[in-house]
């Protein structure tokens, strides 16, 4: 499925100007149909999967309880 720059910006939650700059730099693959750039959405699948994976890893890390420090001595 092909998206316009505006649709891609919404899909990736990035500003349109940034998407256009990345297209013009060749960092995002696109096709120019004479009127607008069309971007294949499938090229972002791996990126989105990796983002989700790292979000899950961070959430698991944050949910981990803090272990008791074995060096703490009772002062009483």
Automatic annotation (TrEMBL):
<dbReference type="GO" id="GO:0003677">
    <property type="term" value="F:DNA binding"/>
</dbReference>
<feature type="domain" description="Helix-turn-helix">
    <location>
        <begin position="2"/>
        <end position="50"/>
    </location>
</feature>
<dbReference type="Pfam" id="PF12728">
    <property type="entry name" value="HTH_17"/>
</dbReference>
<dbReference type="InterPro" id="IPR038148">
    <property type="entry name" value="Tn1545/Tn916_Xis"/>
</dbReference>
<protein>
    <submittedName>
        <fullName>Excisionase family DNA-binding protein</fullName>
    </submittedName>
</protein>
<dbReference type="InterPro" id="IPR041657">
    <property type="entry name" value="HTH_17"/>
</dbReference>
<dbReference type="InterPro" id="IPR010093">
    <property type="entry name" value="SinI_DNA-bd"/>
</dbReference>
<keyword id="KW-0238">DNA-binding</keyword>
